[in-house]
Design a protein that fits this description.
Blueprint: H1 2-22, H2 25-34, H3 37-47, H4 49-56, H5 67-81, H6 97-111, E1 117-122, H7 125-141, H8 143-149, E2 152-157, E3 161-165, E4 171-178, E5 195-198, H9 204-216
Parallel strand pairs: 1-4, 1-5
Antiparallel strand pairs: 2-3, 3-4
Helix pairs in contact: 1-3, 1-4, 3-4, 6-7
InterPro entries: P-loop_NTPase (IPR027417)
């Protein structure tokens, strides 16, 4: 219990830090008097993906994000607010691109009911599998997440598809697929994918082959 309380204390200090980012001291005092810390964490998590990551998933995100991460979060929120939009972005290696794209963002869009059916596509299903395992682990064992959002398992919970039920009783789905498999006709109940996230679409051997091809193509010579 002490460990849980200490964890809550750290997250509430983080919450106050982000409240100072958006509101005056008088407004903060008003909000703290009106809402519980649990409610405020949920509200600020939806407002600020950076806070959502740092508050609920500190074992994956244990430091402040760079400016390019914050720009990425804004692009992702824009995509959710504008259905039918297509966004493409790239980050250097070791900058958390896959953890954000295939772990954090599916959780954010699902928990906040911004996507009832999220599909994650990678080069193979095996590449996406560890991220679905991470998502399942958080939904099963992250006590702060469970306490704040009241989420629990739906009727399907397997290696490539999970159904999640929240306080409102609405089922949502996160599914993984490999681009080398069949994608035709994919559905969750009566729903087609509302959010499709593509990540690591090239296998290592394919990427290396393309690099070799690019370096082996002779450059045009300038004629005198």
């Amino acid at each position: 219990m002490q460990t849980i309380n200490q964890h809550h204390h750290r997250q509430n200090l983080l919450l106050l830090q982000y409240m100072n980012k958006y509101f005056s001291p008088a407004k903060i005092e008003e909000l703290v008097g009106e809402f519980s810390f649990s409610k405020l964490r949920r509200l600020f998590g939806e407002m600020d993906i950076e806070f959502f990551a740092l508050c609920y998933f500190p074992k994956y995100f244990d430091r402040k994000f760079g400016e390019f991460h914050k720009e990425l979060f804004e692009e992702l929120k824009y995509m959710l607010d504008n259905k039918g939009s297509i966004e493409a972005f790239g980050l250097p290696r070791e900058h958390g691109k896959s953890t954000i794209n295939s772990f954090l963002f599916p959780l954010y869009s699902t928990i906040y009911n911004k996507s009832q059916f999220t599909l994650i596509i990678s080069a193979t299903e095996q590449i996406a599998l560890p991220f679905l395992d991470m998502i399942k682990d958080e939904l099963e064992n992250n006590q702060l997440l469970i306490e704040d959002f009241g989420i629990y398992k739906g009727n399907r919970w397997n290696n490539n598809e999970i159904w999640i039920r929240g306080r409102g009783g609405i089922d949502t789905c996160i599914m993984i697929r490999g681009i080398d498999g069949s994608l035709r006709g994919i559905h969750f109940k009566q729903h087609r994918p509302q959010l499709v996230l593509l990540d690591d679409l090239l296998k290592d051997d394919t990427a290396k082959a393309e690099e070799r091809t690019a370096t082996s193509v002779p450059r045009p010579t300038k004629l005198p």
